[in-house]
Amino acid sequence: MNPREHQWKPNVTVAAVIEHDGRFLLVEEDTRYGIRYNQPAGHLEDGESLIEAVIRETLEESARDFTPNALLGIYQHAHPGDGVTYLRFAFTGTVSEPRPGLQLDAGIRRALWMSAGEIRACADRHRSPLLQRCVDDHLAGQRYPLQAIHHFDRNPA
Predict the structure, then answer these.
(1) Domain 9-95+105-144 has CATH 3.90.79.10
(2) SS3 category, 121
(3) What are the phi and psi torsion angles at 135 (to 5°)?
């Protein structure tokens, strides 16, 4: 039996951690565990770079264009409900005003701005502990250059 057939692989996700005037951009979303808060985030798609993924996910979930300026961190989390492991690449940056008429992804109720205190006060409604950890790391000034990330296309030009 080929050992690669049973190789475990985490779900790779990206997240945008955006602070403006002391408030963080979050999304309120429907999950199987009820309504939860999260940063604009989602799964890396086949052939996509991490930077492309976080720009796309932020637009789909908040209707805002995201400009990443640093890697905040890389986070590994095993969800206690289903045991699925997520490997999250979180980025900091800036966003535009919402694009008028752009519909949010299915399951996203709204995008909203919350202070760090408001985020901490609703911890029971966080999608995962990664939300708070990313806010804390952002406030602590943790940043890594985007040049630390290298994307190699399967079919380079």
Answers:
(1) yes
(2) helix
(3) -60, -45
